[in-house]
Every structure is written in C-alpha cells, then in structure tokens.
C-alpha cells in the first residue's frame, strides 16, 4: 500500500504503518481471490495513518480487525424459469457488513460480474458512505450474477420473485433495507416488493427503497445520486474559485446516475459533450441532448449508439474507455469500478481537467487517483460524491416510518443540505489532519471515525 504521510509523532506513525500493513496482509490472506475487495480495503487503509498516529485508541481497540470483516455474508441459489420453460439457476448474495450506526443499508446489483469480491467491496464502501450522510444507517450490499439484458419482462419478474423468496429471510425495515443498483431499477424493486409482501404477509414499506411513488417511494430518489454528485462538485469548485457555469463536462455511463448528473449540471450552466455505455461513447460538441438519452435508455432500453440516428451531427466511437480522451473541465466517472486507469488520468491531466468526481463506486484505479492528487486536480471520492442516493433512500425510510410523503422540493432541499455537510466533513478532516486537499483520505477518515466511535461506545470490541 502507498500509505499517506502523517505530521504527528514518528513513533505513532511507524506503529500505524506496521499495524495497517498487518491488517491488509490478513485481509488478503483471508480473502485471497477477492481482488476488488483487496483494492477497496487498500484504498481505505492507506488514508488512516494520520488518524491512527493522532488517536492510537483505534489500534488499541482492534477496530480495523473487526471493521474489515463483514458481520454476515449470505449466499443462496436463485432458480427461475425462462420463457422457453427451461430452468435457470443464478447465485444471489447479500453482505451485511456493519450495523454500528443503524440497520444495514445498500443496493442490489444484477450483473454477470457479481461475486463475493464485488459485493464485499461495495458493502465495505457503503459502510463509510452511509456514515458520511449523517443518517442512522449501517452498511450492506447484495445482488446476483443475473444479466437483465436481453431478458423479457416476464423473465425478469420471475427472477426477482425467486430472488426475493430467499432474501426475505434476512431483511426487514429494522434489520436490512436493500435498494437498487446496476441492473435494478424501479421495475425490479416493484417485483421484489410484491414478492416480499406475499412471503411476509404484511405491507412493510420500509423494507426496500427506490419503490414506485404510488406504494411508498420518495420523490427525488431516481435523481438523487446524480443530483447529489453535482451538488458536491458545485461545492468543491466554488471553494477553488471555479464554477460549473460555462464548464465542459464529460460523463461516463448513461444510467440513472449519469443521466441525472448531466441534467443537473446542464441546469447549472455546464455543457455536457460526451457520455457512454458498455459498448462505446458519443460526442456532441453542441451539448448532449439529455431528453434523447433518456428516451433511449429509460424508455427503449437501447444502446447509446442510437443517439446519432436522431443527432447525426454527433459521433459515436466503439470502446467506452476512449471517452477520457475528450478535453473537458470536469470529468465524472459514473459507470462502473476501475473504468478510469492511470493512462486515462494522465490524458485528462494533459487536457487540463480541473475536477474529477466519482459518481460510480470505485471507478478510478489507485494509480489514477494518485495522478490526480499529484497534479493538484480537484478529486471527489465515490463514498462522498455519490452518497446522495443512499441519503435519499434513508429519507424514503423516514417517510415510510411516519406514513407521509414529502414534496420533491422538500426532498431536494434535504439532499442539498446533506451533500453540503458531506463536503464540509471532508474539508474539516483535511484541515485537522493536514491532508493538503486530499478528499479521498479525508472522506475515509470522517466516515471511519463515526463508525469506530459507535463500535467503541457499544462495547463491540
């Protein structure tokens, strides 16, 4: 691990280095094939040297030994029948990582790459992301290696029903509250909620978030991760004398996060010139028509290449990684993990990028992050930047508990306040530990302290 330096006592700093190396070695040995989980833990641990050097109690209480091991990992078989009558089988997973500050909370991902490494890395990150929101929610994550692409609506419904029949044993409004993620939108949440009602024989609205508005969902939930991303970027740019107004922005991905980040950025005066999907990317020098992207992705479930049929002045290129070669002021990786590597980061720096903010979970490799930090590019880490989604999920839980609904404006105002508070938490931690604007380390420290302090207070040692 490339551990960051501490300005505190040499003895405690050396002790922290040795301790963190020992923790990481144990994590790799215990989870030897889980590369994504290793990466998430390494990125996290390397931030903690200044904190442990100043407050060695976290070493003395063995908090990291506990916090890097999930409280529970559940795997289960998901059999379902396709439209040809053939029985298919997928694997479902749910990690309940940490409940020190509240019930487990985190999304469900349906994608062929889903395995224990992916789910554990996401659950680990979710713990500290949820902590940063200031909401009383712990960390969890789940999903299945099911690919919704190319499946009929009935096939997706049957899969979701089978998945929830098993998952329902382990979740509840005060235990574990899943939401959506990649491959899981309002349709899938609806099918799973319907099945949960059948299994449990009760209308427990707070068991899932991201629901339809007509049965307990929150206004603003669909937009929240993308909007929250831009609210964080807005604060980060403002503090450095920049503005989104008049900026050129590129956004990887074209799902919920990407679409609503683009929409809010445009509303604030930015010009979005590129977005992508897993096949390739589009470039429109006049500015992406977001309504067209919504039609393709949210209504037709099509590919981003179809954009140029309606906008022939734009161009489409195969290979989504090429999007990072487009000059821009702000780059928003909003697609998937490790999509932005060292070479892409160097290209962005050469093209004078001012800010990079992670709308997706762990989209930048460690080497890419180092490039941004070394070149003084404003860098917003995922657990801070994309926390808007889970923040509004928590607001949905609150509305369900109170049996009421807030207006879109009320939810959006609360979201803006939460994102400002997250940004300020990063600023405060960076100042306290003299991190020179390193918000990656600052977010990790701020998120960790709340969870660790709760664990100590509860005697979970």
- Whole-angstrom Rg: 21 Å
Give the overall average pLDDT. 96
What's the tally of helices? Answer: 18
Number of strands: 12
Strand content: 5-15%
What is the CATH architecture term of the largest domain?
Answer: 3-Layer(aba) Sandwich
* N/C terminus separation: 26 Å
Query: Which fold does the CATH topology of the largest domain refer to?
Result: Rossmann fold
Backbone structural class: alpha/beta
CATH superfamily of the largest domain: NAD(P)-binding Rossmann-like Domain
Helix content: 40-55%
Q: Please list the strands of the largest sheet in the order they lie side by side.
A: 9-8-7-6-10-11-12
SSE arrangement, N to C: HHHHHEEEHEHEHHEHEEHHEEHEHEHHHH
Major sheet size, sense and barrel closure: 7 strands, mixed
Which shape, going by the Cα principal axes? globular
Unreliably modeled segments? none
What is the domain total for the residues?
3
What is the CATH class designation of the largest domain?
A: Alpha Beta
